[in-house]
């Protein structure tokens, strides 16, 4: 059976171990109706290991789900990030063949975030970083965030761009309707559609800013089969090519060279086929989005039964992740 490494798997620090997170505007619980079960896995690495053993998952690359909005003040944001990363680093040290990790960063304070990324990688053995959503409604191509990406490129570790919560006002204006329930509108505006689109826009901002011309070694990871972007690469090339972008190459060339996409538990063959066709087998990774999704036997079985060659299966299942995150 193919070795399985999943790379978008989440945890939360126990509420008693950390200062409270900043108040979030959204009233929608992304944990869904099974929030109690999700919480058990989020807060227990022992239960996580039991799940992995049961469903033939060899390793998880684990990350916190809090995103950049950890606290209002710089001091609290840095303290919370360090506590989260210290816990993650200790679990990696206890189980080095079962866990890798992505650092939580105080993104609203970019210089501090760059320093924490370096500490997490060089002192704690963490394998990269995750950034969720916008930073105080700012996209990450703005100049103040450049030190974070510069540090990642210097350390040769990837940054995983994860969706974040869409503002309540945006959800209500664009996705609520009298013709269906507010709950349906919220799901469309979050995991069903919109937060994936917003994260794809984040990626477009970064590529069009020329970040890969400045940092050709930088590597970014995008979940959910690329958050819509791979579906429009040829279209993006056509229309960005109609005007002066000041880029050295086509949009698609940067994307295929510097970006990796993961399944994030969306185990559907048409999307896998498109990702492989657009990205090639060296830039596709496996992921479950645990514990928000618990695909159980499907995590290993879908990949094992997919109509792909064994060498491609090995790349997607573990080899690409081992190389990108330096898991060996």
UniProtKB/TrEMBL annotation:
Entry keyword Lyase: yes
One term under GO cellular component: cytosol
Keywords of the record: Lyase
GO biological process: secondary metabolic process
Location of the Amidohydrolase-related domain: 44-327
GO molecular-function term, one example from the UniProt record: hydrolase activity
Region (Disordered): 13-34
Domain of life: Bacteria
Pfam families: Amidohydro_2
This protein's record includes keyword Lyase: yes
Signal peptide range in chain numbering: none
Name of this protein: 4-oxalomesaconate hydratase
């Amino acid at each position: 059976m193919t070795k399985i490494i999943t790379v978008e798997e989440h945890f939360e620090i126990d509420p008693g171990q950390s200062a409270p997170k900043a108040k979030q505007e959204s009233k929608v619980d992304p944990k869904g109706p099974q929030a109690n079960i999700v919480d058990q896995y989020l807060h227990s690495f022992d239960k996580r290991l039991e799940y992995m053993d049961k469903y033939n998952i060899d390793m998880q690359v684990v990350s916190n789900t809090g995103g950049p909005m950890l606290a209002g003040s710089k001091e609290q944001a840095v303290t919370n990030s360090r506590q989260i990363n210290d816990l993650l680093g200790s679990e990696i040290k206890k189980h080095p063949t079962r866990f890798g990790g992505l650092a939580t960063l105080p993104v609203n304070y970019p210089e501090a975030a760059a320093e924490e990324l370096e500490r997490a990688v060089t002192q704690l053995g963490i394998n990269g970083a995750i950034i969720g959503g916008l930073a105080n409604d700012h996209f990450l191509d703005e100049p103040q965030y450049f030190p974070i990406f510069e540090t990642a490129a210097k350390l040769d570790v990837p940054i995983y761009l994860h969706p974040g919560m869409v503002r309540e006002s945006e959800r209500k204006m664009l996705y609520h309707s009298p013709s269906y329930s507010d709950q349906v509108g919220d799901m469309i505006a979050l995991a069903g559609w919109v937060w994936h689109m917003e994260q794809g826009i984040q990626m477009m901002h970064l590529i069009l800013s020329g970040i890969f011309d400045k940092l050709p070694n930088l590597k970014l990871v995008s979940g959910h089969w690329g958050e819509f972007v791979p579906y429009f690469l040829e279209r993006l090339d056509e229309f960005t090519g109609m005007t002066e972008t000041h880029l050295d190459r086509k949009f698609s060339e940067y994307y295929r060279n510097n970006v990796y996409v993961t399944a994030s538990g969306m185990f559907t063959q048409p999307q896998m086929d498109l990702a492989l066709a657009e990205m090639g087998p060296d830039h596709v990774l496996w992921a479950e989005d645990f514990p928000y999704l618990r695909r159980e036997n499907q995590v290993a079985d879908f990949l094992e039964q997919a109509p792909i060659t064994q060498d491609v299966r090995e790349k997607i299942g573990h080899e690409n992740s081992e190389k990108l995150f330096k898991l060996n």
